[in-house]
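All the exercises in this workshop are built on plain-text protein records. A record pairs a protein's sequence with a compact description of its fold. The structure tokens are whole numbers drawn from a learned vocabulary of backbone shapes. Once this layout is familiar, the rest of the handout is easier to follow. An example says more than a description, so a record of this kind follows.
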Amino acid sequence: MEIDRVDRGVIASLLRHPLNAAVVLLDTDGQPLAANAMARNLGLPERLSRYCQQLACARQQLTHQDAVACPLPGEGRRLEGWLSAVQSPSTEPLGYLYSVASDTEARNARWAIAMESAGHSLWDWDIVSDAIVRTTPIHASSPVPAGMGLLDEVHPEDQLQLRQAIATHLHDPQVPFACQFRLRQADGSWHWVLDRGQVIARAGDGQPLRMVGTYTDIQQQKALEDELRSQQALLQRAQRVAGMGSWVWEPQRGRVQWSEEFAASIGWGDVSLPTGRQWLRTLTNDARRHLFGSWRRLLDDAAGGSFDLTWGRDPVTQQQLRIWVELDYDSAGVLQRVLGQVQNISNQRRTDALIRWRTELLNRVSALGRIGGCEIEVDTRAMQWTEECYRIHGLRKAPVTLDQALDLYTPDSRDLFEAALLRIATGGLPEQLDLCFYRPSGQRVWVQVLIELDQREGLPERYVVLFRDITREREADERLELLAHYDLLTGLPNRMLLREQGAEAIIEARERGAVLAMLFIDLDGFKTINDTFGHATGDMLLKAAAARLHQNLRNADLFARFNGDEFIVILRNLVEPEDAGHVARKLIASLAEPLYREDATLKVGASVGIALLDEGRNDFDSLLRAADAAMHAAKEAGRNTYQYYSQDALARTQRRVEIEHALHGAVERDEFSLVYQPLVHANGDPVPSIEALLRWNSGRIGVCNPAEFIPIAEKCGEIIHIGDWVLREVCRQAVVWQQAGLQFDRVAVNVSALQLRDRGFAERVVSICQQSGWPAQRLELELTESALIRDTDALRQCFDVFEQHGIPLAVDDFGTGFSNLHYLNRFPVQRLKIDRSFVQGMLHDAGTAEVTQAIVHLGHALGMRVVAEGVETLAEAAMLKQQGCDELQGYLYSRPLRPREMVQWLRSGPVELLDMPPVTAINAISATH
């Protein structure tokens, strides 16, 4: 029996107990482990050790019976003893007890007295008469009935066992009779006894006649066994709870013994543990090397110690063990045995790993969320920071005092923090603050700080402070504030902030009775520059213009970018209303000096509208409407000037708004119509061309001139929708005329620059021609010069589509716009149209006549045909023909005609006025009108 598997206290108790017999405790191999004083006086341990092998058979018999008689030969006399087993709850033998009755009185008394002194009582049972003769009752106070009446005094749970044991022996004498049972005492308690016997006489037929045996008092032995089992169970339970087990290694015998708890701790369960060195095969190579290294260190120290070991090869089922070792040397210094204790620390390792992982995860979350923390003792103001807190503040990881940390903060933030600490320390609730500080590098940082007081029993009071970096959020808020209230290009307040500040200024002026004026500024010529040189140049021009305007204003004045190239100025505290005009002149003059961009000279002017605060205009919106109307009046007055608000200006502004509203849905309401004006060949070719002209009769505002509504349609975007309708209607009408047999060359349509910039416009023109059945080569598009000035990829792609399908292009009103003749080479233009202003002035101004002649020469030099529009007299027609103009258009030949009238004109043919005498020509003109 392993000595460590039996509690040492239990063994000591056994040996000190005043037994009436010599008792020796044996291990599972029969070797003596301990003996009481009586046994040592008899030299019993030495005898048992000497006859260990001979007693092996007796030990084996104990698997079938509770006790076996084991006499021992000795010097002078033989010792009569009994061998019994000490078992675990699972019936596994833990060891053996060998007992011999005391022979102090046996030397001088009869053998019965010796038996009684040893705790035995002899009995002789006459089976036939069922009578028992006893030497001495087991207990004097406990009368024992005769014969089988003894069973009435046996514990009910043990009666069946006793009956079966007797019946078995009576039936088969080879099976010895031995039975342990509880016997009732005089006081009603139960007493354990060991009953043995055998049949000594049988009848001729084999029936048992007589049986002789002994009772042995084993109450103390049973109590000892119970105590041993209880101690063992407690030990095993404690080890299971702690995940611990024990093992013993005997180097001299080459034997390793493991406890059940050890097997359970490594997950072996009911599997047999390996013996010898085979268990090393269950370790990985790394674990085996670690084991050998730890073992060598323990041997060098010779004092034992502990080490950790990974048990098992499968990573999934591996166990982490902590092993304590105690080395047992003999007097000669030879290692006799190694006692070990093992604890399974796999759960602890997993818990430690989980804690480390959670700590690392928390650190990562803190870093990702930019959340740091610190603790501040209330009394000492001592402070401890987390790593993320150091990072947020831009400091190295070193001790930092609270005052040193607060030195980084702005004065306002520092005062807020200190005040919050004081309020919380005096019973206030946790607080959240937004604070600002500057890192040692100079970078500004915003943090959201949460402060609360931690009061735990046994610990000093401390503040727990969490810091969250909200710099990006604050910068985003500031950015949103900037976007919401300021113009990013010029840095000026936008219309939203202007409205807030302007409303406050108006209220203040009304309360004080001060003079206040609003100036609406629109840059003249900006759109042309922006279209010509691109948005980058336009942005640069806007910034420069805003800077010049701003330099001529007072600090008290409000200045904002309202929209595009429009600016608003609110002049406060003026002395006289006329002062607003003086400021307007200064602002216009500030833009007089041109700007230079590379090789280009850029110049813009300003049209300024002025509205004064008075009884009729006493809020922001009414002032804005009045100033806007005045600005448009300044533009109509010739631009680069200023105008005070008047009712006429407001009426014109309202008229533009009405037209814009009326344009929406006008196509669907079928309010547009087309008239047609012929273009006559100057060389007498009878086949004319036709130009389509748009007319609008609105149900809301009546008849509206194209010169009035087309610019508004372009500004509000309705020109795209209207232009597509014109193209479809012109192609439809041309097909109808062609099917009617009418002769004409081409149909011309005016196209806005806004249409050319519309994505897919060229493809839509081709599609309209295909759907209507009109040849694309006979649809001429008349473009303004401003539409051709800006050379873009989209415009080139549009003209490529026109060129691929043979759609002819003409430049309308040539010479009146921003004439950059370079575009004539870049785009496939076939015709130039001389504006009517040149035609009407060439008879009275030689310079104008030279311009028309130059245009004709230029067009012919570039391979183009030249058309003159607005021809109203024979003299104009004669001069244009003399200059080489190819086609003529105007009232001299026909006013714009409705489709039915155009049919009659085509059928009657054009009147050749150039070859008629003057009087005839005049009559012919009258007839055509």
